[in-house]
Every structure is written in structure tokens, then in C-alpha cells.
Amino acid sequence: MVLLGGTRPEAVKLAPIVQAMQVQGRMRPVLVASGQHETMFGQALSSFGLRPDVRLHIERPTGSLSELLGELVKALDVHFEQLRPAAVVVQGDTTTALAGALAAFARQIPVVHVEAGLRSHDLRAPFPEEANRKLVAQLSTLHLAPTTRAVNNLLEEGIAGSEVLLTGNTVVDAVLSIARMPTAYHDHRLPDVEHRATAGKSRLLLATMHRRESLGAPLAGILAGLRSIVEDHPDVEVVLPVHPNPHVRDQVVAGLLGVDRVHITGPLHYAEFCRLLSCARLVLTDSGGVQEEAPSFGVPCIVLREVTERMEAVEAGVSVLAGPDPVLIAHHAARLLAESPDEGANTRANPFGDGRAAVRAEQAIARLLGLTSDCPAAVPQAVLAGGS
Ligand code: UDP
């Protein structure tokens, strides 16, 4: 059983399934690292005590998407021929996921798609992710959908209902299990930041931004919004782990240089990130995964994008769309910071899952392979509707 990933969110969202397979013992998971974002993939896996079993080495002289896709398909084909996996599990909407689905399909190996059915209905945004996830859906045998909306998107595209299971998102399993574990911060400032936040001496804002489409003017707006929040709220501290993309990093550092109470760090280990998230008062992000994780700790989320394919959180009242407008960002932050921690977004359940998605995924894959006849139950609707 191959589980293929190449980026940080793939590591976080596949790791709970690897662990569920290890616990059940009826399938042998082989974790293959595509090398798309090698360091961040490995770093995120390490928080789960996992390492890739196989690492692909591909040449990327031009750095183009087509080159990455083509080289990955070629390299994966060689591995699939040697390993002959019973199925290939891919996650989400990366170029790695698309390459894995194409290479497995070409070898007539069943493809299992984790986090299936997310749609923005705009092929240009997010690019190339919207196209990737639609193409992966066409090649998959089993679609593990995180929410009812995702199930409906798949059914509307003609995917058979018998091939779709509503599991919830494995990121909820991940964040809950990892935040419970003790962690040591690599950045020497963070233990004090955590202490001040948990002792009620400060209110912690966690901010992340990495999307290609935010670079330039939108990112400048986001940074201006962050500066306003810090100026308007003297007890607010911001931790901003900056993405290694040099364009993002340079603009963030230049835009926030010398601003008091803003701590810019390198990418945090997943365990460190979860820990800070669990004691944050507010999150500002353009990340998909972070929008799904924040509600597990009742932390409201300001989404730094014009659109999101995670509307479930907006509808549940746990996220708000602000885009890159500094005035809107500061306005929503002021509103959410004024709420008592016992009301509003802080009290609602996570609309993305109940923390048992990986168990359902493991059962569904075992059934696909004829290892059990038990049909896993879908995640209860009441959970995804923000109920119990
Ligand atoms: N994350 C992390 N360290 C950080 C920032 C984020 O481990 O410094 C985690 C975060 O908890 C989430 C994942 O990375 O699970 C999201 O990755 P990213 O924002 O790169 O991708 P997206 O979710 O937007 O596809």
C-alpha cells in the first residue's frame, strides 16, 4: 500500500492514515516522498514519529510545473512497477497527487483520493490545485470526502455515490493528537510567548501566508492589516512562521521589520505549530489546512483570501473571509478580539470532522481491497453541521 506525498499538508493529512494502518495491521503502508517540498514534508512527518520509506530523486532544472509532473510520473512508474502496490493513496490537490494518480492509473493500480471533492469552481484559482483535484477525481476508485459539500461536488461531477465515503478531514485527527503531545520549541522566543498567552498576559495571534496569488500588492495589504491590529491592541502578540518561498519571506520581513510584538520565525515543526494554535486567540491565514485546524481549538480564523473552498467554516461562523484589504482585516480582528472566549466562534464544533477520519479511511481502503466486508459508517451529519 503506497501513500504518496510531497508537501507539508500532505504529510499532516496522510500521517493519521499511516498510523491507523499500523494499528490495524492488515495493510503495510509504504510512505513515498515525491521530493516536491522535501524538507517541509519530512519536517511535518517527524512530528508523528514517521519518516518516508522511499524518497524519489528528480531533476528540476527549470522548476516548471510540467517538468515536475513529467519527472514525477516517470519516477513513480519505475517504483510502482517494482513495488506493485495494492493501491496508491494520494492526498489533496498537489502536482504530486496528480502525478501519483496518473502513474498508478497507467499501471491499473486503484487510486484512493484523500480529501476528495474540494472545489472553488474556478480553474484559475487556486492554480494549479483546482485542476489537479478535478483530474485526480477522474482517475480515482475511492473518494474519501471530508464534508457533505465535498461529497455533493463529486456526485455533481458524475462520480458514483458507491465510490464516495464521507470520512471527515484527517487534519482534525492530526491536530488533536499532536497538540496533546509535549513539544520543545526550536525558536528560543516561543516558550515565553506561549507562557504569556496561557497566563493571560497577552493575546496570541498566529498568522501564516504563502499563496502565490497573494504576492505583491495583496501581501502588502495583509501586512498593513497586521500592523494595524498590533497598533490597536497593546496586549496582542503575533507569531508569523514565514514560508521558505524567498519572495514571500523577503516581502514579509521587509513589511514587518521593526514592528513591536511581531515574532517572525522560520517554518515551525507541526507539533510546535499545533501547540501555539491551541493557545491562540485568533488566526489569520491563507492556508487551507490552518482553516481546518483552528476550529478544533475554538480559535476564530480570518481568511486572507477573496474566496475559499472551505466555506463550511464560514457558514459555521468559525471563519470570516477578509481578503487582503487592511481595513477589513483590522475590522474583523477588532470584532473577534472583542468577543468573550466563551461565545461565538470559540464555542462551535469543528465542521471538518470529529477526529476519526483516518479510522474510516483505513476501513474503506481495506474494504476496497477485499480485506473486510465491513462497510465503514460515514461521519455523523450532526458533527459536520457544527453540532455535538
Ligand atoms: N504548518 C506547520 N508549520 C508552520 C505553518 C503551518 O506545520 O509553520 C502546518 C499547518 O498546521 C497545516 C499545514 O502546515 O497543517 C498547512 O500547510 P500549508 O499552509 O503550506 O498548505 P495548505 O494547507 O494551504 O495547502
Commentary on this structure:
- The strands form 2 sheets. The chain has a 7-stranded parallel sheet, with helices on both faces.
- The chain is globular, with a radius of gyration of 20 Å.
- Helix 10 links the parallel strand 9 and strand 10.
- The chain has 388 residues and is of the alpha/beta class.
- The chain has helices at 8-24, 38-46, 65-83, 95-106, 129-139, 148-156, 170-179, 190-198, 217-232, 246-256, 270-278, 288-293, 311-315, 326-338, 357-368, 381-384, and strands at residues 2-5, 30-33, 54-55, 88-91, 111-114, 142-145, 164-166, 203-208, 236-241, 262-265, 282-285, 301-303, 319-321.
- Helices cover 44% and strands 13% of the residues.
- Bound molecules: uridine-5'-diphosphate.
- Uridine-5'-diphosphate binds at residues 8-9, 12, 44, 171, 208, 210, 241, 267-268, 270, 273, 287-290, 293.
Briefly characterize the structure.
The chain is 44% helix and 13% strand. By secondary structure, the protein is α/β, with parallel strands linked by helices. Helix 13 links the parallel strand 12 (301-303) and strand 13.
